[in-house]
Amino acid sequence: MSKSIACHVRVRPGKEADGKMNEEGIVIEGNKISAMNGQGDKRYHFEFEKCHAADSTQDDVFDHVKPLLDRAWKGVNTTIFAYGVTGAGKTHTMQGTKQDPGLIPRTVNAILNRQAELSTSTVEVSISYVEILKDEVYDLLGSANEPRKRDIRMSTGGQNVVADLIYQPITSWEQFEVDYDVASKSRKTASTKLNSSSSRSHAILTIYLHVVDEAGKVTDGKICLTDLAGSENNNLTGNDKERMRESSAINTSLTTLGKVVDALNVVQQKGGDASGVFIPYRESKLTRLLQDALGGTSQGLLICCLAPGEKFARDTINTLQFGKKSKAVENRLNDNRRDSRRLSVLPTKPRASLRVHTDSSTAPTTGRPSLGRPALAPIAANTRQVKPQPRTSIAGSAGKKAALALKENVGLGLTEEQLEKRIQKIVTQEMANAREKERPVEAPLKPVVEHPFGEAVGMSDEEKDTRAKVIVKHARSLQQSGDLEGALDLYKKAYDYVPGNQKLATRIAEIQLSLEGILPPPELSGRSRHHDHDKSTTSSKAPLKRSRAPAGSTSLAELSYEAEDESDVGASVKKMKNNDYTAISMTSPPF
Ligand SMILES: Nc1ncnc2c1ncn2[C@@H]1O[C@H](COP(=O)(O)OP(=O)(O)OP(=O)(O)O)[C@@H](O)[C@H]1O
């Protein structure tokens, strides 16, 4: 299912510090809003799903958000984020005050009320809460006596996850109030000329819902409520050196957010074709964590907060333009409903406990925190971006058909499930082709039984080797393009199929050490023929640029073409001997 991000606007009431006011500066008529530029000679017009005028109450704003919350109960990941210039009312809208609570407390309250009403279902509610300060992630639920800084890692499922994140089960309103209050107070704020209590960080509070109904149907929903730090003009804020440093980090991450939205708009204009479009999610921690909300699987709602006053005229137009661009982004909504009685890839039921740390290396694909098995905590489920590459030749019409079918499937990225399916399809093709060459009569392929955590049970050694080979090939492409984290992820996935493979283990260690800055980036020891044609732009010895994938990087879709090329595949599969990847032909170069 594909759906645009909705956009609401809220204008905050004017105050003395806003300076000169122009009654006609911001005009709202229904869901239409127009804003005058600073010179007063040009008016910009926009239309959104909802425009709240300066007299809107917290209740009004929440009323229009409720339908989105209903979706979370149906297993859809949802993200609400407040955007706008510093002092425009983002924190007021998301957090509010004790007397006039904002969206976060209202949402939790509504969830707890609904939990009480659903007497026939078991409902578990928990939260995580992080801030991103100067491009570092801190766990706001962590104790002041222990380090709160957290890493973002890529899970084996291709999701950006926060390591060792704390999940706080919420059992009552009173408990939430205390925990939320303590955590919010530890968020970094400071006084600037534009806002006496300006948030210096982006804050993301995530609410996880786990519902089991009487028929055993399980629904996992996630609501991600994000209060972005405001964009800042240091001439207006009067920032000192430290504030300037924070301001620079805030503005950089917001610029990246804008670049991501721009890139997604280009994808949209190309009819959803992401080929050749670089989406810079990795350029900031903020966009890594919001990846699910932007072009991912989440239902998104952007609330654009506007400050009245002539000095904000340009910011107002920028904010509205950002809202307009964000609205055009299409997400592919997830559905985290399943039958609890069936074998599932989803994590097991969490134990009830007051505070939970998780520290492991795999992440659930839903918004639900996994307490039942080791897991990295997902803040934002995401999908890996793949870039189909133009091919010079495809052998046979069957190859063309498969290539076309795959091309249609290459959207903005791949979920773990899609990646698995694609790998399985390629492996099946490769094996079928190899067998066809070796045996006159083709034996039917044994169906693969998937282990809940992705390991294939009952797979032949040959099939495991072939799967590893396909994954390694894609890992090499990512490594070549400079995406070391993505490559590492896939090398590890390949290793699961050929545990003990020394070369693969060495490659994994090299990349890990390189990511930690201990070793230089490892060089690839061979080149595939598909890399040869773009020698001029890409070289295994070229300096790594982690933020950009060169136009020549391969995709799994492309690998499927290779799988259709029977002469190569037959040769390569024949040469494959017990984990000896160096013996594989040019279609699968040694790592
Ligand atoms: N709708 C509103 N009604 C009444 N007061 C508001 C409203 N919106 C904002 N304010 C007030 O305006 C001031 C600035 O708002 P707030 O701190 O929410 O801005 P912000 O966008 O989060 O700023 P920053 O990016 O600097 O953190 C606060 O004193 C807040 O209480």
TrEMBL record:
<dbReference type="GO" id="GO:0007018">
    <property type="term" value="P:microtubule-based movement"/>
</dbReference>
<dbReference type="GO" id="GO:0005871">
    <property type="term" value="C:kinesin complex"/>
</dbReference>
<feature type="binding site">
    <location>
        <begin position="84"/>
        <end position="91"/>
    </location>
    <ligand>
        <name>ATP</name>
    </ligand>
</feature>
<dbReference type="GO" id="GO:0005524">
    <property type="term" value="F:ATP binding"/>
</dbReference>
<feature type="domain" description="Kinesin motor">
    <location>
        <begin position="4"/>
        <end position="329"/>
    </location>
</feature>
<keyword id="KW-0505">Motor protein</keyword>
<keyword id="KW-0067">ATP-binding</keyword>
<protein>
    <recommendedName>
        <fullName>Kinesin motor domain-containing protein</fullName>
    </recommendedName>
</protein>
<feature type="region of interest" description="Disordered">
    <location>
        <begin position="380"/>
        <end position="399"/>
    </location>
</feature>
<keyword id="KW-0547">Nucleotide-binding</keyword>
<comment type="similarity">
    <text>Belongs to the TRAFAC class myosin-kinesin ATPase superfamily. Kinesin family.</text>
</comment>
<dbReference type="GO" id="GO:0008017">
    <property type="term" value="F:microtubule binding"/>
</dbReference>
<dbReference type="InterPro" id="IPR001752">
    <property type="entry name" value="Kinesin_motor_dom"/>
</dbReference>
<feature type="repeat" description="TPR">
    <location>
        <begin position="468"/>
        <end position="501"/>
    </location>
</feature>
<dbReference type="InterPro" id="IPR019734">
    <property type="entry name" value="TPR_rpt"/>
</dbReference>
<dbReference type="GO" id="GO:0016887">
    <property type="term" value="F:ATP hydrolysis activity"/>
</dbReference>
<feature type="region of interest" description="Disordered">
    <location>
        <begin position="520"/>
        <end position="572"/>
    </location>
</feature>
<dbReference type="Pfam" id="PF00225">
    <property type="entry name" value="Kinesin"/>
</dbReference>
<dbReference type="InterPro" id="IPR027640">
    <property type="entry name" value="Kinesin-like_fam"/>
</dbReference>
<feature type="region of interest" description="Disordered">
    <location>
        <begin position="347"/>
        <end position="374"/>
    </location>
</feature>
<dbReference type="GO" id="GO:0005874">
    <property type="term" value="C:microtubule"/>
</dbReference>
<dbReference type="InterPro" id="IPR036961">
    <property type="entry name" value="Kinesin_motor_dom_sf"/>
</dbReference>
<feature type="compositionally biased region" description="Polar residues">
    <location>
        <begin position="382"/>
        <end position="394"/>
    </location>
</feature>
<dbReference type="GO" id="GO:0008574">
    <property type="term" value="F:plus-end-directed microtubule motor activity"/>
</dbReference>
<feature type="compositionally biased region" description="Polar residues">
    <location>
        <begin position="359"/>
        <end position="368"/>
    </location>
</feature>
<keyword id="KW-0802">TPR repeat</keyword>
<dbReference type="InterPro" id="IPR027417">
    <property type="entry name" value="P-loop_NTPase"/>
</dbReference>
